[in-house]
Amino acid sequence: MKVFSRTRIWTGVITTFLFTLTSNVTEACERQCQLNVSHAFADKYQLLSSLHFSTLSTKIDQSLFHGVPTTAYSSTEAANAIQHLQEAVTKAQRAWDVSLFRTVFDTIFVDEPQFRGDCNEPHRVDQPALGVNWTMTDCHAMDYICGNPPSICHFLPMIKTRIERKLAEQLETKIGGSSKIVGGGVSENGGGSADEADVYANFLGPALSKVVMTHPKLEVYQATMHGNLNQILEVVRDQIVGETAYLAPGAGPVRNAKWIAEWDLEIKLLLLSFP
Ligand SMILES: *[C@@H]1O[C@H](CO)[C@@H](O)[C@H](O)[C@H]1NC(C)=O
Ligand SMILES: *[C@@H]1O[C@H](CO)[C@@H](O)[C@H](O)[C@H]1NC(C)=O
Description:
Keywords: Signal. Residues 1-28 form the signal peptide. Helices cover 64% and strands 0% of the residues. With 275 residues, the protein is mostly helical. It has one domain (29-272). One 2-acetamido-2-deoxy-beta-D-glucopyranose binds next to loops.
């Protein structure tokens, strides 16, 4: 009997402890908040990176057949080949969009410094009542890194830079085979070429092989077309590098020219709507 009642006391203590833990956790940016905020960021970056895939598509239209004599193909064959390669670009873009969400999520919620932990040491903001949003004042006041939405809101500029740097490196590597953005110099993976990059190896390369297979007359020009694609990928890669110059070490307080200022407010309000 004595043992039993002691067990009951412990159960009570544990319940109280769990209850305390739960009521602390409700303050944090929890699963739904994490997913929504990551989606909000990813949607914006998807818009920005779609510009590079558009360039890729346009350039394929303009110069896939550069240096191939017009006697080697009919206009229908050319149109089909271009369409097939542009479809490959669309597939590559879709794959990128999926990976983009994961990168954004990990950058905010998994990488260091992580937005988690106690937001009451020291106390800065009061937890709003149920159904009431956090405020911009909370966003301003929550000036250290911890788990609640106002903290993420406060550090939004820093988070954005972390995400931008990672995405720019990844996109450059997927398209160009290596990244010049890292440290502004030699890439992490020893300077791979566009041929080895994901977009060529997994999408454009196989599409070109298919085109040549279905139009045997083009076979002798496969190397030329391959060269053209390589050139196009390098142009797009340079475009990415040029646009992300503001991320280079020592670039100063330059901003992403394509990021629309209102998006910051949109994401902040979304964050603050998770009390
Ligand atoms: C969060 O995402 C869910 C599912 O995508 C959506 O239904 C909900 O409206 C979003 N909430 C906010 C505040 O954006
Ligand atoms: C909380 O914020 C969201 C997003 O800005 C907004 O749609 C909603 O009306 C706000 N709720 C309250 C109670 O103010």
